[in-house]
Amino acid sequence: MLDRDKKHTIIKKFAVHTGDTGSPEVQSAILTEEIKEVSRHLKQHKKDIASRRGLLQMVNRRRKLLNYLKKEDEKRHISLLRRLKLKK
After folding, report:
1. How far apart are the first and last CA of the chain?
2. Which CATH class is domain 4-84?
3. Helix/strand/coil (H, E, C) string of the chain?
4. What's the mean per-residue pLDDT of the chain?
5. Which long-range contacts does 23-29 make (Cβ < 8 Å, 24+ apart)?
6. Nearest-angstrom CA–CA distance, 83 and 81
7. For residue 23, what are the contacts with CB-CB under 8 A and spacing of at least 6?
8. How far apart are CA 65 and CA 15, in angstroms?
9. For residue 78, what are the CA distances in angstroms to 26, 84, 86?
10. What is the pLDDT of residue 76?
11. CA max distance for the chain
12. How distant is the alpha carbon of residue 29 from its chain centre?
């Protein structure tokens, strides 16, 4: 779970306009950071099945957001993938 300050910095960095918290870019960036945190947790706690299930749900939610963005605006999708350092 991301703390408040970290989430605010991500929102400021990926916001499309001022006050933006719900754009696909912001949601994908927040999910990416949460995925990183849960992945680190699972490296230490290999038998934590509940966290593994939550990780899979977050990955699927991010994938759906990225597919939506790709369908709506290809340029924004490509730039977001570069900024998040994800593969195409």
Report:
1. 26
2. mainly alpha
3. CCCHHHHHHHHHHHCCCCCCCCCHHHHHHHHHHHHHHHHHHHHHCCCCHHHHHHHHHHHHHHHHHHHHHHHHCHHHHHHHHHHHCCCC
4. 96
5. 24/65, 24/66, 24/68, 24/69, 24/72, 24/80, 25/69, 25/76, 25/80, 27/62, 27/65, 28/62, 28/65, 28/66, 28/69, 28/80, 28/84, 29/80, 29/83, 29/84
6. 6
7. 14, 15, 16
8. 15
9. 15, 10, 10
10. 96
11. 42
12. 4
Residue with tokens 């998040």: 84
**Residue 51 near residue 38 (C-beta atoms within 8 A):** yes
**Boundaries of every domain in the chain:** 4-84
User: Could you tell me if 23 and 16 are in contact, meaning their C-beta atoms sit under 8 angstroms apart?
Assistant: yes
Encoded tokens for 52:
């593994």
Residue at 53: amino acid letter: R
Confidence at residue 13, expressed as pLDDT on a 0 to 100 scale:
95
Q: What is the pTM of this model?
A: 0.93
